[in-house]
Design goal:
The structure is a homodimer of 460-residue chains. Chain A is of the alpha+beta class. Helix content of chain A is 37%, strand content 20%. In chain A, the strands form 4 sheets. In chain A, strands 15-12-14-13-17-18-16 form a 7-stranded antiparallel β-sheet, with helices on both faces. In chain A, strands 5-6-10-8-9 form a 5-stranded antiparallel β-sheet. In chain A, helix 1 packs antiparallel against helix 3 and helix 9 packs antiparallel against helix 14. At the A-B interface, strand 9, helix 8, strand 11, helix 9 and helix 11 of A face strand 9, helix 8, strand 11, helix 9 and helix 11 of B.
Chain lengths: 460, 460
């Protein structure tokens, strides 16, 4: 085994599209969070599935790890080259291959970002709704089973991906499915690769569902005297069956941060950001239903924003949450974590977590895609302080075990990467062994993003 | 290996809950379609996951095939014991284990049927929407990735299953997921088992999503001078984003059959059965939109049926389609087949198929869950006539290849079983080998419903 041999062989083929420049390696070895990084030995920029096949075959021959890299926006150390190897930067595979407007789907190369796809669609009356915040690429969003603010209405990548082109560990290429909306033909390989975090193969093309741009969009902001009332509003909204498009909750710490960072003047209190899609009359009907529920639960104010500019400002503020949070403590790094619980347990989980935060004296912001029972915490820590890191890790551990005890999951949408590997067995138990069996079957040399997601078997 | 030894050992444990009576074996070896059957060596009726574990371990020890059996309503020879073995009849595992009304989910044993679950839910304001026609059990519906009339609005079993309890081939038990609505934690084992047709393990418990019973339901029937106009109405309805709950198409042959069998007086012409769910105002708004689309496409009549009795009669007629079809030719057996294509190709696919039917002089009825691009054909044949069987098989082959050429799938919801194994390689190509790798990894002795879904590797 020699990674150096693989690098030399690839250099001959890819020339200036293979880089070993320290700045390039560094940029591909470390995400923006507190997670430890490690540089790959080289970064290569393929343009096609065929080129990925060549790379994978050369790496397989030299037993060299292969780490797929999208827009670099994942947050659990997914792309750190923990065993060295070659990073495949997919960003130059950025062609929209087909838009089938009649079928409401599109096929793109893995490096196309969600904003790029939506720009491409701008005259079609269609859009791709999944919005994890960052301008992630569709290959990476698929690999991490991304979701985000619109998931409560439009689903996650699990529901949105119709088919994938995947290069397997031995260089074979498969199509996981065809474009039919449903099928009972064979194992669901599409869903197997959605969320596989690069550990089973390299996703090179993605076919996704699109949706018609709603005729009308209505937004609202409402704040509450406490968190529980906000969460109860969410629970009742979901249970009432209102097809709400977004229902985001920000805690009071975050509202202050957002006001400051994005120059806004929202109430500094637990707040819901709401969006309704439909015909004019159905969007209004939905909004009125939720307003009634919010008022019943004692919301302090309920501000409408049918105006597109105001709406854009509000969602931009939502997107700026990570930076607004970090600005609360200049120089800090973020431990960004998320959990997801059945919605009936959401209030309990959040209230207990806020109490834990208060007791632990950790500076953190809370934001949730609460319609799915999913919420995020950003802990602002000094990564050089062992004490702070240990303190934050202990908190994070308590958070996950709290969610698991409520029949929840250790991550709603961030994925496992390095950061959450230690929770795989607490969450899945024996099923982790089934995952390992699948991993071994498809990647017997353990070259596809090794050292991620699946914890090593315990020593005897 | 000795199946007889497994039967003896199981008999000692299960006593009268293990049967080798010829009538019982026969009932479990053959479905109601034209597919060839084969009796198992014994049928055992477990009551719990633990009992399934005991059965699977004994079968594994004696290298005896294990065939899970639900309500026996599958149509592709899924449960024929082609290599002999033990059939696990799951129908006595029929307990509703939990209804979490606040979370809109329920956990049931695999043998609970969909109608049983809905009866159980009748005072909760919730329902389980997936309706494949027959009163199938949830284990079987999961294993075949069932869908049916409501899928266009509520999704298929792929979207509805939140978690499964599965007994693996070596007797280990796994939970595939927790109850959180979404998760990015690990491989999607839930979706791997949904549609696995008993070939990877025995599903013993199923957690499914529920929905609030809509405040208002409106139905309509409309008929068209020809098939193309009906299909174009469907395509435009889907593209317009109307969240229609059901949109079923029946051809003129079937309308005549249904009128006769169910004593109705519908127009004998291509017909759409429509249903709209929502608040009173949104259901009416949806219905008016679709009426406008249908009239633009020249529908002959558009009959509303807000009345619950009339609606029930209409959907009962829809459910009686198989029997109404068979009554067209007493003594015949049905070759029941389905395909699914991208909706933009639906009109082409149906028009070409109808022309093929006319030319082939085959008596057949056509009904479709057309909102998904999915349609069914029931060919009434004399199973003892080799000529008719060959003729029907050739037609069926042309149908599948027509669908595949349109980027469709060989089955939208029936599954592969025995009947469609020969289409796996034409549809999936190299991906079939990945499915085989997964099958070998999870079931190295090939005891879980062997001889189904995955065609044997070609001889060299």
């Amino acid at each position: 085994m020699s990674i150096a041999d693989a690098v030399s062989e690839l250099k001959l083929i890819f020339q200036e599209r293979l880089s070993t420049a320290p700045s390039v390696l560094e940029q591909h070895g470390k995400d923006w969070t507190w997670n430890a990084g490690r540089n790959p030995d080289a970064v290569v920029f393929p343009h096609s599935t065929d080129e990925v096949v060549r790379i994978v075959k050369i790496c397989a021959k030299h037993q060299t790890p292969i780490i797929p890299f999208g827009a670099g926006t994942s947050v659990e150390g997914h792309f750190a080259a923990v065993q060295g190897g070659i990073t495949l930067d997919m960003q130059q595979m950025n062609e929209v291959l087909a838009v089938n407007a009649e079928d409401l789907d599109a096929k793109v190369q893995a490096g196309v970002t969600r904003e790029q796809l939506n720009r491409h669609l701008r005259h079609s009356g269609l859009f791709f709704p999944i919005d994890p915040g960052a301008d992630a690429c569709l290959g990476g969003m698929t690999a991490t089973r991304a979701s985000g603010t619109n998931a409560v209405r439009y689903g996650t990548m699990r529901e949105s991906v119709l088919a994938l082109t995947v290069v397997l560990a031995d260089g074979r290429v498969i199509q996981t499915a065809r474009r039919a909306r449903k099928s009972s033909s064979g194992y669901d390989l599409t869903r197997l690769f959605v969320g596989s975090e690069g550990t089973l193969g390299v996703i090179t093309e993605v076919t996704v569902r699109l949706f018609g741009i709603p005729e009308a969009v209505t937004s609202a902001v409402c704040s509450f005297p406490d968190m529980k009332r906000a969460v109860d509003t969410v629970i009742e909204t979901i249970q009432s069956g209102v097809p709400i498009a977004r229902i985001e909750m920000l805690d009071e710490v975050l509202m202050e941060a957002v006001n400051h960072y994005s120059k806004l003047d929202y109430n500094v209190a637990p707040t819901l950001l709401l969006e309704f899609h439909g015909t004019k009359s159905s969007a209004d009907e939905q909004a009125r239903s939720v307003e009634a529920i919010a008022r019943e639960h004692g919301c302090v104010d309920f501000r409408w924003s049918a105006d597109e500019n105001e709406r854009a400002k509000m969602w931009q503020a939502r997107r700026d949450v990570p930076w607004a949070s970090l600005a609360l403590r200049p120089g800090s790094k973020m431990l960004a974590t998320d959990v997801c619980v059945p919605i009936s347990r959401l209030a309990d989980c959040i209230v207990e977590t806020k109490a834990d935060l208060a007791e632990s004296k950790i500076l953190a912001t809370l934001v949730g895609h609460v319609g799915d029972g999913n919420f995020h915490l950003g802990l602002m820590i000094d990564p050089d302080s062992k004490e702070e890191v240990a303190h934050a890790e202990a908190f994070s551990e308590r958070l996950v075990h709290r969610a698991l005890a409520m029949d929840g999951t250790c991550t709603g949408e961030h994925g496992i990467g390095l950061g959450k590997m230690r929770f795989m067995i607490p969450e899945h138990g024996e099923a982790v062994e089934v995952m390992r069996m699948i991993k071994s079957a498809l990647d017997p040399q353990n070259l596809m993003n090794p050292g991620k997601m699946l914890p090593a078997r315990a020593e005897l």
